[in-house]
């Protein structure tokens, strides 16, 4: 979640987190500058966040074996619902490759990919 918060904050987007796990981890709320000051746009985007070492590249695609229940919660949403994206943190298999720490620094390395479910 810290990854999502950091990127969203840098882009000027508010983030709220879901209280219960019903297939949505949080919602992005874009912010815009108006003559009255900053305000949320009213256009939201929900997300499901996953992190895994079990992924591979196949041409231009990322292959990830998502649990059927989690996939169905995304795929079977009402087409008129707020859009939902999957944010997949693709971690190297060896933890030492993506996580290093000492008294001076914490280093995290990964690739993030998104998948959207809407067809508008």
From TrEMBL:
Q: Which residues form the DUF4365 domain?
A: 2-96
Question: What Pfam families does UniProt report for this protein, alphabetically?
Answer: DUF4365
| InterPro entries hit by this protein | DUF4365
Q: Where are the transmembrane segments?
A: 80-99
Q: Which domain of life is it from?
A: Bacteria
Keyword annotations for this protein, in alphabetical order, are: Membrane, Transmembrane, Transmembrane helix
Q: What is this protein called?
A: DUF4365 domain-containing protein
